[in-house]
């Protein structure tokens, strides 16, 4: 099978499709969000206008999509994949979805005399880029054998888990272990930090002893650098833990640890770090204990957590406010709107940090917002800061640009210290 269709060009899908192209396969791509295909087109990919058009052009179709609802749209929506899948086509879904949906899709594709494999993967963005993913496959073993070369063009191992739905079940069980490992590491680091143990020394110990894990091996360097760039987002892990919780209920399997860890990830999402890497769970524990649990390159030894980092020439933040320096730090703002019971929609808009006051920030943006609206403020990556919740308490209009006074909410004292340190470094007012 040489003509492959690939749907879903996110963090995982784009490098997987790129590896297929590099291995000489003819790849037609489709993505629900425009603008993610340029690099793949340069590698030789063709673009389909709809999932249906992609199905007509492909002998094998792969999907790598974020959740059940998105999968339903791609497979069953207008001009969906199922409307044009041809007899004999092999369709492989590598998303993490509910096993019941995987089985339903398998039945519907089988009714069109085609074949379906649910084949989620383990391995995050680096494994997708390096072609070292592991596929766990549910469905007909003979069909899996037919397409194994295609899967091995993107991964290093293919494991047959059982009949249709078994790949999805195995993935949820696997990610339950990953989520628990993540929370366990952060909790151990919080205990160590509270006891005055250096994070680098503690992580070296964990990696050398009985607590060692693949998760620690992958994340320790990034934790020490406070690099929470996405390899697998916290929100996606929470989605998987929720699916696993539903599955375990249906299987009547008790999962007390899963339920506790799911709650911790829910706390992380509520703090506004859902779109960061799942290791940003560290922020939860930092909020709870009032200090960083990882090393931070900009933290000053012995700095007070109440923000009273006194220097010989006086407090830097007071000095900066006396001078009223105008800042020009780019930000992004997450704006969430109520849709219906239990549901929010959101968008990400651009903004600029203009000034820091005693209780909040002044931000400018070309986008109109409303007084008393709550927003999440995303600082530049080099700040080392998590998103912070703010409430708009003042609005001014200056030459077509809106200026918002934002009262900060839930900012821990040490985070306030890091914010002031970052602003002083950026404005050049630090000696």
Question: Your description of this structure?
Answer:
Residues 318-424 form the PilZ domain. This protein has 431 residues and is of the alpha/beta class. It folds into 3 domains: 3-163, NAD(P)-binding Rossmann-like Domain (Rossmann fold), CATH 3.40.50.720; 169-289, Orthogonal Bundle (N-(1-d-carboxylethyl)-l-norvaline Dehydrogenase, domain 2); 316-427, Thrombin, subunit H (Beta Barrel), CATH 2.40.10. It is built from 15 helices and 15 strands. The protein has helices at 13-22, 38-42, 51-56, 68-76, 99-111, 125-130, 141-152, 166-194, 199-208, 214-225, 234-250, 256-270, 282-289, 316-323, 413-427, and strands at residues 3-7, 26-30, 46-47, 60-63, 90-93, 115-118, 121-122, 133-138, 155-162, 329-340, 343-356, 360-365, 374-378, 388-398, 401-409. The strands form 3 sheets. It has a 6-stranded parallel sheet, sandwiched between helices. Strands 10-11-12-15-14-13 form a 6-stranded antiparallel barrel. It is globular, with a radius of gyration of 24 Å. The model is unreliable at 296-325 and 338-344 (pLDDT under 50).
